[in-house]
Task: structure prediction
Amino acid sequence: MRKLALFLLIFMLVFGYGTVAARGPDYLTAGSDDYGTYIYFNSFLSEFNLLFSGIIGGENGTVETAAELYSQLNATYETLITYSATGIGQSALDVAPYFVQMGSCAVEMASGNGLFRESFSEGDYPGARRALIRMKLGLRECRSALDSISSATLTGPNGTRLAFDVGELRARLGELDLLIGRYERLLDQVQVPENFTLSVSNPAPYAYENVTFYGFTLGLKDVRILINGTAYRANVTNGMFHLEVSFERPGVYHATALGLNGTREVFSNTVNVSVGKVPTKILASESVSQGVTIEGYLLDYFGDGVPWRRILLNVGNETYYGITDENGSFRFFVGNVSEEMNATVVFPGDGIRMESSLVLTLFPAKDRPLIRLFREGTRVRAGEDVPIRGTVYGDYELPLTIYVDGRPYSSLRANGNFTFTVRLSPGRHEVYAYFSGSDELAPAASNVLVLEAVPIDYTRRFLLFVLFLIIAFAGYRLMTKRKPAGREPGEALAGALRPGEGVSIQGKPDLRRAYRVVYGLLKRIYGLPKSTTPRELLSLLNSEPFADSLAALTRLHERYVYGRKRPGARDVLKAIKHASLVIVGVFVRDEL
Result:
């Protein structure tokens, strides 16, 4: 179960519950929402509900079930801390401590219940009383954890708000409270306390770990706890006193309870508390990218980061020194390693915390191939095959997976230049290629192409095609007929050209005349100065839908006009074709 919980958590953090949408350079770590986190932790609420029902019903095995749940939640929290450096799982990291607290108090409740039943059946009434107190403390902690869980909110699909439903679990806690009351009344019927006794929840805590001194007042007033001679006033509730404290330094502490019976002081037994150093744990991982980097956290027994402490890294015969930051995190850059080797991260300890270490295996850095995708323009036709070119730089043959909107679309093997096609539905889409890595190469992804697929309107296409034929025919006639007296060629095209622009068009089709008509038309429509050269015109309009036809027409014009060569009939027809396409493009844009 522990391994399964870890696997589910890692899967949820990396991929999310819904579709992962890759955007820009962050596609590898992108997640859709917190729904996976919600599903994962909500399952634990059901488990706790069953556990508490089992305690109330007197079922066997509740202690083992509670311990297993607590172990799973601790493992979950550790995993979240490990992966928090990558930027994922923040919402899960926020709610996890509340579930860990719920797991801890569930263990107290189940253990206290089992101990009470065992002690009561054997006539060990003081032991049953201690078990009852343990259950009360556990119930108080469970209610505190449940309040925190009920106030936590997560983000669901489409920005919806997700909150944990704790109604049934809160009802189970109310039933446990009634069970504790029945136990207490049953114990009061068979035991008459005679001694004023002080107990402690943990006689061997760690520094900074909370412990509770407790006992029954037996009618005494103004109960205080004396710890190494210093008096602390205890909290009294329903005939029971308790005091929660923590010790900042390791050592042995002596505690005694003091109460007043009228004007006479009554002392309890003395309890010795041996406080030890706080255990620590190092969580770290290595990554290989332009060298080896080791990152991690130094945590104490309570799961908190230990700030501003020295950390050592031993790699071969070299030692690196570092200091944790305010969150307890650290980072070492080792550089390239030539062979597989072990690295040891060491915290030497201090006056309060124990030392700890962690051994990692380092591997030589891998090359990361460069993959690029190319596509002229961002608008494509929906439902049609869209060719996309790509290049793998370097002497690699890579198995590539093509992703569309974060989902695998197709696969291919590429070495150098490659081409693939996609067919897109209407709307905005993101396309990229991904290489998952190998023994010699690190994983790599291409740039992301953003394409806008527009739907095809066949009726509109047909009408525009008819319009294209009409305009093309008009252009052809315009460029081949003899110029009427007093009219310029631009005026024949709806007055597009100013008087005086263009040249006299006479006789059969001519390449120069075709270009001059287009040249004058474009300057007129775009309001360009008369001094605009053909190259300047082409540069200014290179983003227009007809830019390719204009470029082809310009090249033909330069070849035969500036080169003073006589064009052949084929090139003249090409010039007329491109001129017609430019004229059509000016009026219908890219709708054809």
User: Anything to note?
Assistant: The longest strand covers residues 264-275. The chain has a mean pLDDT of 81. The first helix runs from residue 2 to 15. The two ends are 61 Å apart (CA to CA).
